[in-house]
Specification:
Layout lengths: L19 E5 L6 E6 L2 E4 H6 L19 H5 L2 H16 L4 H4 L4 E3 L4 E3 L7 E4 L3 H11 L16 E3 L5 E3 L4 E2 L2 E4 L8 E4 L3 E2 L2 E7 L18 E8 L2 E2 H7 L7 H4 L2 E3 L4 E2 H4 L3 E2 L19 E2 L2 E7 L5 E8 L7 H9 L10 E3 L14 H4 L7 E2 L5 E2 L7 E10 L2 E13 L4
Parallel strand pairs: 6-22, 8-16, 9-26
Antiparallel strand pairs: 1-2, 1-5, 2-3, 3-4, 6-7, 10-11, 12-15, 13-14, 13-22, 14-16, 14-17, 18-19, 20-21, 20-25, 23-24, 25-26
This protein binds calcium ion (CA).
């Protein structure tokens, strides 16, 4: 497959990818688009010109500030749109080539959150991450809690504070219990951390009271994004027993703007880790359900230099997305189109693949030296944390772009 449009060899947005997003420009209100190279295909314009008329959806569906209604049309329609754009980008006689205003330079566009997220759930599905955290906070000999290998542990997060890449993050303040102190103090978090995660977007709802069997779970997943689940470790540590994360997580999470479809990710399916003990039948799946997606975390210091601090891979996940979805709905909980289910921190086997500063600097005990000579145990004010991800196999490259955010000083 070859496009007539020039696409850089290292572009994340190749002809094989074609992710969906929401963009605006000085001339265009927020609307749906597909990324290709350094351009955006304006789906609203194409729809208004009648190029999707046979697919029988109204143009308002792609002329909105979120993709929820478009995604809710179902994969039959959304895949047809994506495949048609793919054909047009390869066919020199296509409308995209002859109506240049259907392509918008990405550099001239603002990218927004692609969906209205009704609910956000965060899992804890990397065995390496859960083991590292268990070793630091509990018992090194029994790092995993007894439930961990039997179910994908998760919690309900905060959807309202999810922001798109580029929006700065304000360092949170809150209650912390200093080591050795007898009473908590109120202060700006001194242990602000990132969590390297991916998330998937629900593409098909289930009714309240109707679990999604794992054999049908793939039908309910529209696509994936990169996700930085910002965490204030000192606030988290003091508050999290017994009900789990609260203010240490809910101040902000950052999300990449392009939703990479599951169709684009099919070439990168791989086997996951062996699950031992065997899972209960409702969590038993068939085939290869992990994905080989290379991930990296960069700290950009205020002088502009980029320091790669982690190289991990989504393939390491113990629990896969089908299991997370089947588990989430097994009690009858209804998921809605646009909901976000995040993976949990994605750590690999060794230190170079750890997905949080908590692990990389081992709870502050192993400071990291950056190119500008400064050291980090957590994230400083005016650092920018950038996460990038891409899958590659032979000549096929499918990337996520990036999720980036600068940390601003705390209020007061
Ligand atoms: Ca998390």
């Amino acid at each position: 497959m070859q496009s007539w449009l020039p696409i850089a060899a290292d572009s994340d947005f190749t002809i094989h990818n074609l992710p969906f997003g929401i963009f605006s420009t000085d001339q265009h209100t927020r609307r749906a688009g597909i990324a290709i190279g350094d351009q955006i295909v304006d789906l609203c314009k194409l729809c208004q010109e009648g190029y999707f008329a046979d697919l029988r959806f109204d143009s308002w569906v792609v002329n909105k500030d979120n993709l929820n209604h478009f995604i809710a049309l179902g994969k039959k329609t959304t895949n047809a749109v994506r495949e048609r754009v793919q054909q047009w980008l390869c066919d020199p006689a296509s409308p995209l080539k002859h109506y240049p205003d259907t392509l918008v330079p990405m550099a001239a566009a603002t990218l927004h959150l692609p969906v209205r997220i009704g609910d956000y759930t965060d899992f804890y599905s990397s065995i390496e991450h859960a083991t590292n955290v268990g070793k630091m906070f509990r018992d090194p000999a029994n790092a995993l809690l007894p439930n961990w290998r039997h179910l994908p542990v998760g919690y309900h997060g905060r959807a309202s504070s999810i922001v798109p890449s580029g929006v700065p993050i304000r360092r949170p303040q809150g209650q912390v219990m200093p080591n050795g102190a007898s009473a908590p103090v109120f202060q700006a978090s001194s242990r602000l951390d990132f969590e390297l995660e991916t998330g998937f977007i629900i593409g098909k709802a289930n009714e309240l009271g109707s679990p999604v069997p794992i054999s049908e779970a793939a039908d309910h997943i529209f696509g994936m994004v990169l996700f930085n689940d910002w965490s204030a470790r000192d606030i988290q540590k003091w508050e999290y027993v017994p009900l789990g994360p609260f203010l240490g997580k809910s101040f902000a999470s950052s999300m990449s703007p392009w939703i990479v479809t599951m169709e684009a990710l099919q070439p990168f399916r791989v086997a996951g880790p062996v699950q031992d003990p065997p899972v209960l039948p409702y969590l038993a799946f068939k085939g290869h359900q992990n994905y080989d997606i290379g991930l990296e975390v960069i700290i950009r210091t205020p002088d502009g230099t980029e320091n790669v601090v982690s190289r991990s891979n989504f393939r390491y996940m113990y629990w896969n997305m089908l299991q997370q979805l089947a588990h989430h709905t097994v009690n009858g909980c209804n998921l809605q189109v646009g909901d976000l289910l995040a993976s949990g921190t994605i750590s690999g086997h060794d230190e170079s693949a750890y997905g949080s500063m908590l692990e990389i600097a081992w709870s502050g005990s192993k400071p990291l030296t950056l190119k500008d000579g400064s050291t980090r145990t957590f994230i400083n004010d005016h650092d920018t944390v950038i996460m990038r991800g891409a899958a590659e196999k032979g000549a096929i490259r499918v990337g996520f772009g990036e999720v980036a955010a600068e940390v601003l000083p705390a209020l007061g």
